[in-house]
Specification:
alpha/beta; two-stranded antiparallel sheet; TIM Barrel; globular; 286 residues; single chain
Length: 286
């Protein structure tokens, strides 16, 4: 290909965030995603300046970029439970502060569940919560974008359609730099056909008409264990699921997404699985 694709995977930060850069280089990745803290705890320590400097140096020396951070799994910015929502606001602010300190380019957020509310109220609450969480933070100065991720389309889950992702982006665009992260598995199981050639083209037209191709900063490249439209979010190794290698080849060669980072979140069932999935994506990108 004429343009170098940024291809990587979600990596562990055991030993320090800069260690993820070493792990990326070791498996042939040139971009990566991490959690900035435990994905299942509300509170997290602030980033130490010395640790951030080690990460920045490692990224610059190895040309591994961009860094993408995934928000922890507890955050639900559209929860009807006020205690959960307030905890989510505090936790999301911490995520944004750590992302700025670490020099991340994107902060990926699952919009959450609006169970007990109308979808419209869920969208409204999500926008209010995120705006409150980032109040006073200069994300633009840090070149950090909040990336709204599409979901698998389960009942009450916000972001199960491209239209919903676009709606939330529209709500937030006056508060912060905001774009999207699209997940291949989520897209597939939500009912979008990305497997057939004609279906892929139709789906990408829908992306442009709602979110806009330029607003897709990251593709989570995950094959799927479940069928199209099943709404079951079960990731599979690249080329071994119901999506298949041809779709990933098509996506990686799609000039409309030459600016995007392609990051796998595939299972690590055995040592070397992360390297195998990165190698599969690199091979398909040739």
């Amino acid at each position: 290909m004429s343009t170098l694709r940024r291809i990587g995977i979600h990596l562990s930060t055991t030993g320090g965030a800069w260690k993820a850069v070493e792990r990326a280089v070791a498996i042939g990745a040139n971009t990566f995603q991490i959690f900035s803290s435990s994905p299942r705890m509300w509170r997290a320590p602030a980033v130490k300046p010395a640790d951030a400097e080690k990460l920045h140096t490692a990224m610059a020396e190895s040309d591994v970029r961009p860094l993408i951070i995934h928000v922890n799994y507890l955050v639900n910015v559209c929860s009807q439970n006020e205690e959960v929502r307030q905890k989510s606001i505090v936790a999301f602010r911490g995520e944004a502060e750590r992302a700025l300190a670490l020099g991340a380019s994107g902060l990926v957020l699952h919009p959450g569940s609006w169970r007990g509310l109308t979808r419209e109220r869920g969208l409204e609450l999500a926008g209010e919560s995120i705006a409150q969480a980032i109040d006073g933070l200069d994300l633009a100065a840090g070149k950090l974008h909040i990336l709204i991720e599409n979901t698998a389309g389960a009942e009450f889950s916000l972001g199960g359609s491209f239209e919903q992702v676009a709606e939330l982006i529209s709500i937030l665009k006056n508060h912060a730099p905001v774009a999207s992260c699209l997940d291949t598995c989520h897209t597939h199981v939500a009912g979008y056909d990305i497997v057939s050639e004609s279906g892929y083209e139709q789906t990408m037209r829908q992306v442009e008409e709602t979110i806009g191709h330029r607003n897709v900063h990251v593709w989570h490249c995950n094959d799927a264990k479940a069928a199209c439209g099943s709404k079951l979010d079960r990731h599979e190794h690249i080329g071994e699921g119901t999506i298949g290698s041809a779709t990933f080849r098509r996506l990686l060669h799609d000039p409309r997404f030459a600016h995007s980072a392609f990051i796998a979140e595939t299972p690590v069932d055995a040592p070397g699985d992360d390297q195998r999935d990165v190698a599969a994506l690199l091979h398909l990108a040739r």
